[in-house]
Specification:
Blueprint lengths: L1 H47 L16 H12 L4 H10 L5 E7 L52 E7 L5 E7 L5 E6 L5 H13 L4 H11 L3 E9 L5 E8 L5 E7 L5 E7 L2
Antiparallel strand pairs: 1-2, 1-5, 2-3, 3-4, 5-6, 6-7, 7-8
Length: 268
């Protein structure tokens, strides 16, 4: 009986081990089937759902020669239009700004823009808060030179007129704000002075107000403001604004009511 019992126990053990092995094989098979199904589903989904871009688009198109020059000059400029205007008018007793230009930015390229739209009024603007009122700086004389010109660096060139229309040229270092030169223009005659005085008398809006109107329309840096005739239809401030794309937009702003008359963007 002992021998029979021993064989019985052995058979039971072998049977149990066989069942366990079979179960393991079945479980393994199920796992592989499940993994294969998941992998197939993922592959199919990848065909439908676009993959996320891992590379960023190109930063920007290559800058034109004019845009490169604007960027170069403006990157070096530390003195704003407002500060340069205040400094320039402070050099002439009772003076008013007629023209202010950042040298090196689109020089000799200030023709009145072609109309691109009639230009809706942008509202009556108040003087810019950041700019000091013109003429508040104490006069230092009509033709003095208070600083030596730097060998390099951008320069603001201003024309400031006395009440009778006599124009003074004031050059300002655009990095440190110091006056390089202040002198009376020698080539003015009586007619020139009268024309300048008449334009200033008609201009009820300041250059700072015109600059504010322009930069509210296009965010950017003011590089030039000039008082000019609007083709016989009154007086206007012509304002150049360079945006973050280094393109220049010229605005013709009515010098009596701050309405934008014309605007044009130079894509070069």
């Amino acid at each position: 009986m002992n021998s029979a019992s021993s064989r019985s126990r052995t058979l039971k053990t072998v049977g149990a081990l066989g069942m366990a092995a079979a179960a393991a094989v079945l479980m393994t098979g199920c796992g592989q089937s499940s993994d294969s199904a998941t992998s197939a589903a993922t592959s199919e989904a990848a065909k439908v759902v676009p993959q996320k871009q891992t590379t960023s688009p190109s930063a920007s198109a290559e800058l034109t020669e004019d845009q490169q020059e604007r960027k170069k000059v403006l990157d070096a400029t530390k003195v704003t239009f407002d500060d340069a205007a205040t400094t320039a008018t402070g050099e002439v007793a009772g003076g008013k700004l007629v023209d202010l230009d950042l040298e090196g930015v689109d020089d000799d390229d200030r023709e009145s823009p072609s109309p691109t739209a009639t230009g809706s009024p942008t509202g009556t603007a108040s003087p810019t808060g950041s700019a000091s009122p013109t003429g508040t700086a104490s006069p230092t004389g009509s033709a003095s030179s208070s600083a030596s010109p730097g060998a390099e660096g951008p320069v603001w060139v201003a024309e400031v007129a006395e009440k009778d229309g006599t124009v003074h040229t004031v050059r300002i270092n655009a990095v440190d704000g110091k006056v390089i030169e202040a002198r009376v223009d020698a080539d003015q005659d009586a007619d020139d002075k009268k024309e300048t005085a008449d334009r200033l008398a008609q201009a009820t809006q300041t250059p700072q107000q015109a600059a504010k109107v322009a930069t509210e329309k296009k965010k950017g840096t003011v590089t030039s403001v000039s008082l000019d005739d609007n083709e016989g239809n009154g007086i206007m401030w012509q304002v150049d604004v360079v945006g973050s794309d280094w393109k220049k937009t010229t605005f013709d702003v009515d010098a009596k009511n701050d309405t934008i008359i014309r605007e044009e963007t130079d894509n070069d």
